[in-house]
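TL;DR need structure tokens for one chain.
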Amino acid sequence: MKENIEKIKAEIGEVKLVAVSKRKPVSDIKKAVELGVKIIRENKIQEAEQKYNELKNLFKKNNIKFHFIGHLQTNKVKKAVKMFDLIQTIDSLKLVKEIDKRAKQINKVQDILIEVNIGNEPQKYGITPEETLDFIKKLNHFKNVNVKGLMCIHPYEKDPIPYFQKMKQIFDTTNLDILSMGMSSDYLEAIKEGSTMIRIGTKIFGKRI
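>> reply
TL;DR here they are.
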């Protein structure tokens, strides 16, 4: 893991590295933190909650950020808002309303990314590319939600570069800070096309069982 993290950090420069720890034990996360990883990501609330209860003191001590990137159901928002520094998968106004409500209850402003369904794939969640800018405008009046940027997962088994380029074009029409795109198989291409945040699992932790 040490060699993997050092290699990735050398390649990505100032781009933010998010370590994808789903289905990996707490011991692996602790090791990643010891090796300098600053952002940990989970995609299931129940698994995240179990790990967070064990790791929250370590996270606080080392200023580790905890991100969520699975599909978030409204009935899990209360738990998500208590745990996560950034929720990367916002895909509906209904979800934003619930996050705003739950964040207000604990006096928090919740940072979020808008998930863009960049390939317009019917089986995937996310705002369509065409609706993204209008959707951002609709969120301006929510006081306990802070839109930080955009996220996408490009269509599998297709050349990611055109999708990365399309995302960058959309991103450039906003004044947001974060463009989260690129994973273990294509993070270098994503960075070349303008990604500011990559999400790496297997290249850090190895294959999942």
